[in-house]
Specification:
Layout (H helix, E strand, L loop, with lengths): L13 H55 L2 E2 L10 E6 L7 E8 L5 E8 L5 E11 L4 H4 L4 E4 L12 H4 L2 E10 L2 E10 L4
Amino acid sequence: MTMMSLRKDDGFTLSELVAALGLLGVILAATWAGFQASHNYSKLSDRQGWFAREVSSPLLQIERVMQQQYRIDSTYPGVTPYRIKCETDADNDGNYEAWEIQATTDHRLVISNSEVRQDGTYERAPSTYAWSTHNYNVETGTPLFRFFDKAGNEITNMGDVPSQAIKVVVTVVTIYDGKQFSDSRTVLFRNY
């Protein structure tokens, strides 16, 4: 046997182990960063979906109703910063649709509508549904409706709304993951 023979029981050198652990660390760091990015995008997607369902969709529906309204109903309990009842004739059939929109103290945004014939009888029975069960307008003290007159002044006497309002600012507030989110729309009444 020669002196240059290889020893079969040699292990890894310290530098080989350090290099392998360094590469493993880089791979694990990249994997962790990818996982974190995926998790953050998932949370962002959830928040955007929540916002669309709890704020944007109700705002769109309310905006459509308020643009089409031709009469604000001031009968009891009347117009408040958190409730309105109005009439539209969206399908132009001579029968009006009665809409009531209200933010409640139990975190619901409730929308009711029915179609009423000119003689006052129901063409379609009233239907009421909670558009949102996470509405925080009342709890945060943020009015759902703020009405303005021709001069651009906010109407504070709700009894004046049916005769003086030409536009409304609608604001919907929700809370998601401990954070408050809201959005507003300014709607001009088409009959002015």
